[in-house]
Amino acid sequence: MMKIKFQFIFLISFIISSIDRSVSLPSIDNLGISPQDENYYKGLSLGAIKCKDVSKKFTKSQLNDDFCDCPDGSDEPGTSACSSGKFYCKNTGHIPLFIYSSRVNDGICDCCDGSDEYDGKVKCPNTCWEVGKVARDKLKKKIATYQEGITLRRKEVEEAKLAITKEEAELSKLKTEEKILKDTVEQLKDKKEQIEKAEEKERLKREKEEKDRKEADDANLEASKAEEKTEGQEEAVKSDIHDKIGLLEDSPSIKDAVEGHDKNVDEVQHGDHSVNDEFPVDELEQVPEDSSQEKDATENTESLSKEELGRVVGSRWLGKKSEQELEGVGAGSDTNHDNHNEVLPDTHEEEYNGYDSEEDEQKYDDGDSEDQVEDFVGEDHDSSSSHKSESDDDSDFADITTTSSPSWMEKIQQTVKSIFRAVNLFQTPVNISDADRIRKEYDESSSKLTNIQSRISSLTEKLKQDFGPEKEFYSFHGQCFESKENKYTYKICPFKEASQVEGYSTTRLGNWDRFEDSYKTMQFSNGDHCWNGPNRSLKVKLRCGLKNELTDIDEPSRCEYLAFLSTPALCREEKLKELQDKLETMNREQPHGHDEL
């Protein structure tokens, strides 16, 4: 009875509502059923079917009987009997959607076609065509954006593939050039080190020569000082001797004393008795010998010049015995006596010969210095005559060929080759201009090698990145997208990092991690640590747009950020077809369902 009564009420409501609507409501058996579930419910024509959660079974008579038989509400898709059930709004002319079964016949119009309020308590006009017009217009604009975006995407994909091919070729070429330039730099480095060794040898040689010269100058200075000191002493002695000679000239001379003594000796020999009285006989016996010695002294004294006599007196003042000096004088006068057959060396001649020997020694020293200089000159001559021939240098670049339009690498090789031909590394001293050319070319080649290696590194790292299945995200590399939200400026750099800037303070939201959700999401992880929380992270949802634009940045969870980025890279043809089908569905009387819950 209850079911018959419900069906009667529904029929009356359907008749009444059909008067005010341009479309009719579905039958009770199809009420609230989506197109995707139509095949499932067709099984009721054959008998009982299982609930969707397979917990129970129900028959066709139990479908939409306003009694909940299945816990999941699958037996009551068009009533509010099951709280867990869902009601499908077809909304012909607009967007189909699901609503919770609890909203069915609750007095509020939830479906634009009014199908959710079929008990007649509330009149719900069908507004799907009016409301649907706005949605359809919006959908049409979205379809147009996709169509234009797809064109831009195709162009970017084509450019990306060409750029990647070009960069791969460049990388291969750079690796070849790196190998060649490495060899060139090694050769220049070897030549540079040879120059530095030669320059170091020259420096040490100059230092040694300077040291030897300084030592010689110091020795000459010391000898000069010693000679000046000796000459000063001689001048003092001479001055003193002249003073003494002057005194001797004023007093009875030595010659007179000697002559007086000789006279006494003659008187004794001739029998002068007055002398005998003064000299006893035993003393006179000794006179002849003494007289002979005094005679020799007298003769020696007479043979001396005034200057020589002064030297004799000076020698006595220096503390030498008169007998030794007289003997030296006698030897110097070449007078041979019977009692003095041995010739004694002249002390005066030895003294001055000593000065002469010092001068001679100094001369020999100077001669040695000159010989050393000559030895150095000889070494230079030998080394310069044994330098490497040009053919040896040419062998280093024998495999290099020149063309009518040589590349920069060939130009470097030719320049280095010409330098090696012109520069004589065995020349002593090293030519400064040649050394500078080697150093300059080495520095420039090393700089070029460093630049090449840096480029190789950056290209290798870049080409390792995942740019999408069609390389559609290649243009993201090296770009950063910014957006200002309130007091913060957000900066997102794909394949690198994301940050939040406030004034002069920068907070890292994360480092580049990977693409997710079939390249619809970019993930940045392991950002700066949140106080008393996790490390910051960011997800960037991608959507189709005609330009790269960052929008709608939010923090839905603590230290977990969410942003949206519009880009042509996400304008895909399969999505365009889906939108076109949707628009077509909105214009059909029996549209396919779509879950909006």
UniProtKB/TrEMBL annotation:
Residues 478-573 form the MRH domain. Residues 200-402 are annotated as: Disordered. It comes from Nicotiana sylvestris (Wood tobacco). This is Glucosidase 2 subunit beta. GO terms for cellular component: glucosidase II complex. The keyword Disulfide bond applies. PROSITE patterns: MRH. Residues 279-288, 352-377 have a biased composition (Acidic residues). Keywords: Disulfide bond, Endoplasmic reticulum, Signal. It holds the Pfam family PRKCSH_1. It comes from the Eukaryota. Residues 200-217, 224-276, 292-310, 335-351, 378-390 have a biased composition (Basic and acidic residues). One of its GO terms (biological process) is N-glycan processing. Residues 1-24 form the signal peptide.
